Amino acid sequence: MSGIDLSGKIALVTGASRGIGAVVACRLAEAGAKVGVNYHASADAAKMVVSSITDSGGEAFLVGGDVSQEEAAESAIKQTVEHWGNIDILVNNAGINKDRLLMRMTPDDFDSVMDVNLRGAFLCCKYVIPHLIKQRSGRVINMSSVVGLSGNPGQANYAAAKAGLIGLTKAVAREVASRNVTVNALAPGYITTGMVDELTEDTQAKILANIPMGRFGTPEDVAESVVFLCSDGASYITGQVLTIDGGMIA
Ligand code: NAP
Fold it and tell me: Within a 10 A sphere around the Cβ of 202, how many other Cβ atoms?
């Protein structure tokens, strides 16, 4: 635990029904922020995240919606502002992957991965930025991936979306820097969530051999970086990509 105090801050975390997003939402709430827990398909899981936060004395509410759809993204920001009266932090975490070698990848596989990972983040940025500019403070954190920096066979769609998120981060960071709004990206390596659990033991062993720290990352490793980037101590950091990968692409 970092001891960072985010009391009074209002956050929306997209894709917070499970995996990294769920832990990010809980960790932000633990630091004192009020949190909108966005989900698309997993309503019951998202309700459990909200209950877990409120049972621990934190404040959270459910925000359903597919972030790749403009109306839903706009509504997620609007619902957060209406519910808490404001918004300070957006974590664009929602993501999917549809891995296939390029020659077998269909245009639909490409488009759907771009739509959730990149278009969804663009849309949420588009609708949150006016609020952050108006109040002359705010934090946006985009969940990229080491794959967006290094590429990975079988993930042309995912790597393109995650690299696109880095471009989006840097461009928007420059647009809003003078208004005291920071925009940064996180690039996690292999983090123990559903995405990593799906890999065979053999593949996991091969990956571990390339991680200098000799372990997969945890959602908590990522959540701590989110909390740091939301803190006052990170107020002069913008347009950056923070890699959280145990040294894998160092
Ligand atoms: P995960 O366990 O599969 O969870 C994905 C989350 O995204 C779920 O909450 C899911 O919600 C949500 N989501 C999917 N499509 C959505 C949509 N259209 N609208 C709103 N929410 C949507 O994934 P994870 O491993 O925690 O990954 C979280 C983020 O970190 C992703 O952006 C991923 O690319 C990135 N990342 C993960 C790793 C890793 O090793 N795990 C590494 C690098 C980067 P529903 O189930 O409710 O639809």
Answer: 8
Q: Is residue 200 part of a domain?
A: no
229 phi and psi, to 5 degrees? -65, -20
Q: What is the domain range of residue 116?
A: 10-191+219-243
* Residue 127 appears among annotated catalytic residues: no
175 Cβ neighbours under 8 A, 6+ residues apart = 129
- CATH of residue 80's domain is 3.40.50.720
In a domain, 248, yes or no: no
- 3-class SS of residue 30: helix
- pLDDT, tens digit (0-9, with 9 covering 90-100), for 160-185: 999 999 999 999 999 999 999 999 99
Tens digits of residue pLDDT in 1-11? 579 999 999 99
Q: What angle do CA 242, 248, 250 make, to 5 degrees?
A: 65
Ligand 1: distance of its center to the CA of 63 in Å? 15
Nearest CA to ligand 1 atom 18: 66
> Is this prediction's pTM over 0.90?
yes
